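User: Need the bound-state model for guanosine-5'-monophosphate:
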Amino acid sequence: MADGIKLIISGPSGAGKGTVIARLIERLEALSEAYYLSISMTTRYMREGETDGVSYYFTDKAKFEALLAQKGLLEHNVYNGEYYGTPAAPAEEAFAAGKIVLFDIDINGGRQIRERYPDAVTCFLIPPAFSQLEKRLRGRGTESEDKIRHRIDIARGEYAAAADYDYVIVNDTIDDAVEEILAVVMAERCRMCRRKPLLSI
Ligand code: ADP
Ligand code: 5GP
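Assistant: Bound-state model below.
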């Protein structure tokens, strides 16, 4: 079985996490890599083009809090006034199967996963310049001007808090960002802690 990797991809809203992860998945499939993309649960509204059970599990506050009370989430956070969390059961199943497990979660969630699983690998994805965030969010056209401004404010704090992440991925072109993430996966697989069993002769 291939070594599983818990790969956390965080970054400010509009950096391109969803876009890059979608392309990364195409590459992983072409490489016949076993992966699992964690589908988060959230109380935020469903955007146009999103599908329940694919983009997120969309739910209400009461159901989210019930799952939280049952310890059914690996981590959770409140972002922009809404709950977001990682369902525990499917992720744990994917860890046990030795898959590359991808998490598109915020910095707060990334820290919680790392506390629980110190071998988790953390990537902070950013555009080549901070000013691109606003442009990309506006181009996406899914948030009001107010919400865009609020997301940019949150992004300032995220940049300041990202120093404990392992890697910085620059999403200038999507393909280059994907190659950087694949390079991280490759490097992590070569780590002494993962390959130590090969040294026992
Ligand atoms: P996030 O998931 O980080 O919030 P998205 O993947 O939704 O970001 O991307 C935000 C917007 O930026 C989308 O409209 C997307 O098409 C665009 N985008 C993503 N990556 C790039 C890139 N490398 N260059 C230009 N635009 C990009
Ligand atoms: P969006 O509303 O743009 O889809 O996501 C907003 C933020 O929430 C992004 O930074 C995204 O990575 C983060 N996020 C999505 N799912 C989760 C989750 O399950 N847990 C945490 N902590 N953050 C999440």
